[in-house]
## 1
Amino acid sequence: MAIRNIVLEGDPILTKKCRVVERFDDRLAQLIDDMKETMTLKDGVGLAAPQVGVLKRVIVILYEEDKIIELVNPKIIESSGMQEDAEGCLSCPGEYGITRRPMNVKVKAQDRFGKEHVYEGEALLARAFCHEIDHLDGILFKEHVIRMLDSSELEVEK
Ligand code: NI
């Protein structure tokens, strides 16, 4: 495994649409392992492949406290409800804003072997699924921001 560099906002790679993964090979497994390690080191709750410079539809998400799941070619198949809460991104360090997201989502995705799984997320987890899947279509959380938080509010959010 290896730590990969995080691509920061302003890099055009973060605005591109990612390719569907068709080959479930060692290279994909390596990418996923590296993304998990990088996300853990950076204390993130999710990471998308374009954030490490790879335009493939792959994300990793902190699912439970110590479990990171991998989602290849993820799709939101159901969503319901609404929440507004603070959100940030490893590609936009130090910036947080209030976004509006569904409260519940159901996501279908493959794992590194191509096997399909369905995951359900509520609250923070639903936000994470939406945020990371957006990255695969070149969308940053700021496009959903209702209001950016200023420095006095940031102390509370951190
Ligand atoms: Ni992000």
## 2
Amino acid sequence: MSINVKQLAAEKAVEYVQDGMKVGLGTGSTAYWAIRKLGERVNEGLKITAVATSQASEDQARELGIPLVSFSEVDSLDLTIDGADELDGTLQLIKGGGGALLREKIVAMGSTRMIVVADESKAVTTLGKFPLPVEIVPFAWEWTVADLAKLGCKPELRRSGDELYKTDNGNYIADCRFEAIASAADLALSLQRIPGVVEHGLFIGIASMAIVGKSDGTIEIIEVDSGR
Ligand code: 5RP
């Protein structure tokens, strides 16, 4: 039987959740396993409250009986567990493959701690092979895409079938193929200067731990001081 490495990493991360915590629920096929395990622990008596980073994760949590609260009821979270599309050795991340990067960043930044869960294919030396998702407003998207291209990438508007993909916030996603990002910090600054950019999928100095599941059944834990 082959090992589900995403499940392996996600379930390890759930061991860090303790009674009384306020937890951020990530989005994607790895976060799915974390939410599932959290649901099991809640049904065994774990007392937590949670907020979700997407409609899909909220629906899953509600179905499992995980108590959800609104953002007006909590001013910060203890821990967010979320996936990533790429992570490097210093825990700089590319996120947004599932289109939830804006909500994911808001929730992760509002958490004392972010644990990333991933399979080993996501661990890279240099970020950028995975096209960087950038959430942009629909207004004048053509100009925003042109500005993104000036940063040295090939931006492509994400599609969903025949339609342009829309995020939970009603925006578009431009997937920007850089191949290699020499300085994630410099690129983040350049992206923030483009008015049509709502948020980008570079997470820098946010995660303090990554749990990486490997096909041999082991896990690697990477810890950094995120400086937060
Ligand atoms: C969604 C994300 C996901 O965390 C990322 O795409 C990883 O997803 P998966 O665990 O399915 O590979 O950023 O916006």
